[in-house]
């Protein structure tokens, strides 16, 4: 009888519910607040019922990240099926990941932490499928897809570090103005370019800059078709 009740409780508390509750905690209070005790309190259950579905915090973070990224890749797949060009699908996927990390900064940290987790494979499959659709020769497909992946995951790491910096010290604009002021004081002989872009740094649009980088990589990929 006890075994049957335990199984019923485990079935009622699905992994999806656990992951959604974890995402709510992560979005509200950050990665440091995600503990099995906090999760159990939110779900009004015991930690044992959660361990039935998730082995540890790292597995929970991976599942939460995959949940977010799966929504991105599903939307992009639908866009590709609806007749978008491969270039449009790649841009949509890249911007979808960008927006997901912007909305959930902890996702950037998790993506940059483990390059072989399933969420990363979802992105790679989405990118790789569109690289193939572009007509890139097979021998160049791996390099083309991983160039895009490196740029996207580089964003993930940058956002993860930036989120910690801004949360600890100041808002984004104030922080960038402080950096730009330091760059403007650099030696003009040793750092002419950095001094030049210092004026652009505080007010630049991260999303536009990111898409411009994707377009530059796409232009290079299209040249090898």
Structural commentary:
About 30% of the residues are buried. The protein has about 220 residues and is mostly helical. Helix 2 crosses helix 3 (about 35-45), helix 5 (about 55-80) runs antiparallel to helix 6 (about 85-105) and helix 5 (about 55-80) packs parallel to helix 8. It contains 12 helices and no strands. The protein folds into 2 domains: about 1-55, Orthogonal Bundle (Arc Repressor Mutant, subunit A); about 55-220, Tetracycline Repressor, domain 2, CATH 1.10.357.10. The radius of gyration is 21 Å and the shape is flat. The termini are far apart. Helices cover about 75% and strands about 0% of the residues. The longest helix has about 30 residues, at about 140-170. The chain has helices at about 1-10, 15-30, 35-45, 45-50, 55-80, 85-105, 105-115, 120-135, 140-170, 170-185, 190-195, 205-220.
Give a quick summary of the entry:
By secondary structure, the protein is mostly helical.
Radius of gyration, Cα only, in angstroms? Answer: 21 Å
CATH superfamily of the largest domain: Tetracycline Repressor, domain 2
What is the succession of H and E elements? Answer: HHHHHHHHHHHH
State mean pLDDT (0 to 100 scale).
88
CATH architecture tag of the largest domain: Orthogonal Bundle
Which descriptor suits the 3D outline?
flat
Q: Which percent range fits the helix content?
A: over 70%
Number of domains: 2
Structural class: mainly alpha
* First-to-last CA distance: 65 Å
* Biggest sheet record: none
Count of runs of 4 or more consecutive helical residues: 12
CATH fold-level assignment of the largest domain: Tetracycline Repressor, domain 2
Number of strands: 0
């Amino acid at each position: 009888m006890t075994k049957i009740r335990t199984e019923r409780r485990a079935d009622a508390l699905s992994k999806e519910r656990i992951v959604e509750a974890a995402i709510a905690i992560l979005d509200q209070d950050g990665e440091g607040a995600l503990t099995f005790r906090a999760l159990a309190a939110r779900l009004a259950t015991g930690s044992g019922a959660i361990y039935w579905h998730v082995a540890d915090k790292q597995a929970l973070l991976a599942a939460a990240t995959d949940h977010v990224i799966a929504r991105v890749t599903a939307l992009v797949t639908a866009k590709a099926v609806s007749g978008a060009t491969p270039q449009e699908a790649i841009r949509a996927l890249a911007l979808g990941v960008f927006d997901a990390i912007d909305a959930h900064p902890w996702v950037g940290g998790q993506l940059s932490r483990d390059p072989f987790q399933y969420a990363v494979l979802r992105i790679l499959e989405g990118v790789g499928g569109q690289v193939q659709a572009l007509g890139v020769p097979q021998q160049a497909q791996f390099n083309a897809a991983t160039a895009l992946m490196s740029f996207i995951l580089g964003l993930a790491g940058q956002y993860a570090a930036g989120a910690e910096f801004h949360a600890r010290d100041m808002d984004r604009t104030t922080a960038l103005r402080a950096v730009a002021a330091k760059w403007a004081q650099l030696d003009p002989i040793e750092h002419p370019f950095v001094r030049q872009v210092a004026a652009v740094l505080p007010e630049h649009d991260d999303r536009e800059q990111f898409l411009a980088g994707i377009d530059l990589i796409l232009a290079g990929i299209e040249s090898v078709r």
